[in-house]
User: What shape does this take?
Amino acid sequence: MKANEEIHLLDYWRVLQKRRHIAVIFFAVVVGIVAIYSLVATTVYEGVVQVLFDLEKNQTLNFAEGGNAVIQMKDSSEYYNTQKEIVRSRAFADRVVRKLQLEKNPYFMDLKEKKINGVLSKVSKTIKGFFPEKAKPVSPFPDYKFKAELDSDLTEIVLENVDLTIGKQNNLLKVSYFADDASVSAIMANGVAETFIEHNLDIRVRPYRDAAEWLSSRLVESKGKVEDTEKMLQQYKEGKGIVSFETKENVLNQKLQELMTQLVQTEGKRHEAEIKYNQIKSVIDRPELLATVPDIMNNLVIQTLRTEELTARRQLSELSEKFGGRHPQIIKAQSQLDMLQKNIISEARKMLNAAKAEFEVAQSRETSLRRAMEQQKQEVLGLTRKAIDFNVIAGESGSNKQFYELLLKKLQEASLSGGMSVSNTQIVDYAVIPKDPVKPKRVLNLILAMLVGLFGGVFAAFFTEYMDDTLKTAEDVDKNLELPFLDVVPLTEETKGPIFVTSDPKSATAEAYRTIRTGLMLSSTDNPLKVILVTSSTPNEGKTTTAANLAVAMAQMGEKVLIVDVDMRRHNLHELFGTSNPVGISDVIIDPKRLSEAIKTVEKHQNLDIITGGTLAPNPSELLGSERMREFISHLRGRYDRIIIDSPPLLAFSDSLVLSRLADGVVMVIWGGKTPRNTIQQAVQSLQGVGAKILGVVLNKVDTTRRSYYYYPYYSYYYSDKRGEKKKKKKK
Assistant: This one.
């Protein structure tokens, strides 16, 4: 679509008219399916019971810290969701089955039989029959017994048809039951509501009764424990002779703390002495490393000796510069230096011995303190064990007393609550037999189906139009190709062709070819189009049929016309005209002397000659692009008024691109509604790329009976009426 082109409502109307069969089919299918469903669907009635629940009675009694009772009110939405889940539970449905004795009801037994032997059940059994039955795994709880339902199938039937919804008021519930029998729906709704009230009351009261029974048994047990622990506490005091643990425990703990403090200090001293000793020991035999130990270098004696050593070294260095190595002064200076080094080592060994003695004393002190601390720990632990035993017995005695008092209080509360017989729910409106079914709502279904079918059909029509990327009308050609439009060739029965201009001259197809002929003849009056190339994007689009009919139509105008089949790979033009094919265009290009032999006159059509494809050539592109082909076309221009060239498809071979430069113009044949738009545009671009002149586009094989082509049906009707009148006159 062009950028500056606006869309009008008429365009939408044309799309709907063009795709009306899709919209109608969609509408008919939707309405038909819904109508059939509404007629054959099982009629369902709804029995409804109004149940009132009181939130003030729907409360829980909790006990805060300190024993104070706190009443907590439940949220209405939370309570409603809880009740809905209760109604959907299998336990509740089984209770309904038992209360209403559905296992004895013929109606429900018939439903059960249909459920078991229904179509879906049979299909499921049939499918399972194709697969081998798996062995049941051994249960890890073989002795566990589940609470059995009276009838699981009846339970599922109740669950499938019962529902609970909240009413207009927050404290109203609607209990519904659906059945295909009006009386059954009402009776079952009342039965479910009554069972719901009983079940609700039972849920409220049962925990209190169970709690009371449990508390009674635990109260007797707790009372015995209180008496036993009191006796044990008294016996322990008398047996151990203990009055108070606190004083002695404080003294022992204080002494233990002092020993721990001394031990930590001693450990620090021992660690320092050990480090000092190890440092001196590591360098004692390596005099050159003595200076790396801080403790050695901090010794005043060693510092003095080190100073003297440096002085001696300096003197020895000065003497070495003046005298030889055996000079008495050098020997004396060397002896003095050796003596100083020995003294430094001797002093370092004294420091090593002192550090070792200090380390051993600290180690011995640490061992002694550890031994004393362990003894003190044992005394503390012994006392602690006695205190623990005493505190355990005393704590157990106090705990048993508190637990006994709490159990006694809870038992009184549970006994009081368990005696309640008032439910917080009651029926305010019993179900009556409904007059009208709730499903299916035939009128509403049909109205909705018509709306869905209408809008869905319109959407399907526009979606189909959007997804259709083919060209079918002159507007499509103008919007997508921007090329001249010659005409539409209607889809016609092949038995009437292929030369429709002579075989069916009054048909819409023949008239279309004549219109194309006229358009080409009038398109260039100053420079008549002598050589016209007919091609297409892909095979089977009808270019050969178009070329043949166009040639015959021009010959009927009295022009000398030549049609040439240059499709050397698949030439079939001779079959359309019923001529032989011994010598053709390929033979003429190779040997121009055979031109007279290649040109054949079509006897059925005056003024029309034909050159067939001839011998199949291995190199068609080279032949068609040769200089001989150019000379051949130039020679024929002087002999004929029109030359129609039937060429191969553009996207399949390059022959048409080569020939387009020899022709005065190119006619593009497009299979309307079949060839994709991108394919056509690619073919047009290839022609425009070589500078070919495109005369126009022919939409071929278009079904004009199903589109918005008004001219062709009226044209056919006109001639069919004329023919009918002629036949009537002949019969008379």
